[in-house]
Amino acid sequence: MPSHIRASWRNSGKKNDVAILLWPAKSPDLNPIENMWSYLDNKVRDRRPQPTTLKELDVALLEEWAEITASTCVKFCLSIKDRMILVRKKHGGAINY
């Protein structure tokens, strides 16, 4: 994002009392959905036989998504604190999580 747009966005956030998180430039994405996509990808890759058409892939993704439990979602959300600690220790660098 160009700096003049970032500055404008930050200023509008301050005017509207919006908390702005300053992410380190080299920080990995700490959004738990990224872990969910990886989990889903692994579940589909583990299927036998593997999907070979877009329709089969669509079906496989929907089936695997439906099997994701609430406890799996909670696990990914609760991992944020540990990941944030690791990112801070790496001064915003990549972590192996």
TrEMBL record:
<dbReference type="GO" id="GO:0003676">
    <property type="term" value="F:nucleic acid binding"/>
</dbReference>
<feature type="domain" description="Tc1-like transposase DDE">
    <location>
        <begin position="4"/>
        <end position="49"/>
    </location>
</feature>
<dbReference type="InterPro" id="IPR038717">
    <property type="entry name" value="Tc1-like_DDE_dom"/>
</dbReference>
<dbReference type="InterPro" id="IPR036397">
    <property type="entry name" value="RNaseH_sf"/>
</dbReference>
<protein>
    <recommendedName>
        <fullName>Tc1-like transposase DDE domain-containing protein</fullName>
    </recommendedName>
</protein>
<dbReference type="Pfam" id="PF13358">
    <property type="entry name" value="DDE_3"/>
</dbReference>
